[in-house]
Amino acid sequence: MQSDEHLYDLTVVGGGPVGMFAAMYAGMRNLDTQLIESLPELGGQVEALYPEKTIHDIAGFVSGKGSELIANLKQQLAEVQDQVSIHLSEEVIGLEKQADGTFILTTSKRTTHTKTILISVGSGAFTPRQLACDYDHALDGKQVRYFVKRLADFAGKNVAVAGGGDAAIDWALALEPIANHVSIIHRRNNFRGLESSVAQLQQSSVELVTPFNITGVTAQGEGVQIELQENKGDTAKSLTADTLLVNYGFIADNHLLKDWGLELERRALVVNEFMMSSEPGIYGIGDASTYPGKVKLISSGFGEAPAAINHISTELYPDRRQPLHSTSM
């Protein structure tokens, strides 16, 4: 275990899009910053799970892919590389507050010293919600998938998407022009996605299989046979597909926050208008945090980052001028 004796102004925990932007903005405020990410690359869930998913709701980023957003954020970070130290494949596992108000963080590789902490770990460690029915898990990653890394993998195939939220709808629409046939299976007639996306889905060639639950999945040749039962009805039927893409969301484990004794609400860190938690010096932004009126969007996290960073800067260096307008490099 290495000991990093350097005292950082700020440690950003979590290298997803919001954490990356926060670290960049901290660098612009001349805060001596380190960014710690448990995965071997920056980008969080967007880069690991949805690199080809189209993102529509970030101002000025016109329907670009997740991988493009991460590439842009990496380029921004490179502009403040003298101020921001990046540590990948490193998990924060312990925290100890010192008598002077600073913190000692223990990671999987070292101990490190910091004046403040900004938590941007999203919903924490994530695992996909599995199909409720029993099936042969040898199909996982082949005929049954929970992640999409490359849309091209589905070119010319018959794809069934399971789910009724934004992500499931987005994948169905993204696959429509390249797959041979796309169907979407949902247990309700009404979808839970953004209104414009639902309207686009209803006008597309995607087959809507509703309201049905999946009761069984078996291998059939190179594909799968999917058994369906009408929700609150008697109709049973089956359909075949080359691939079943399951998108029921994720189960999050934010044990980090729980272990630190911070005030939580529905597994999210409760913060005030400055994004500060119940523990002075510890802040939270993005999906890791909650407050009245919270909206869990990447764009919301981007707005929360300057609120937290500017407050941290004022607390650490009260004589520094607060920025009144957007800053140019």
UniProtKB/TrEMBL annotation:
It is an enzyme of class 1 (oxidoreductase). Gene3D superfamilies: FAD/NAD(P)-binding domain. One of its GO terms (molecular function) is ferredoxin-NADP+ reductase activity. Its EC number is 1.18.1.2. It comes from the Bacteria. FAD binds at E37, Q45, Y50, V92, F126, D287, T327. Residues 8-299 form the FAD/NAD(P)-binding domain. Belongs to the ferredoxin--NADP reductase type 2 family. This is Ferredoxin--NADP reductase. The lineage of its organism: Bacteria, Bacillati, Bacillota, Bacilli, Lactobacillales.
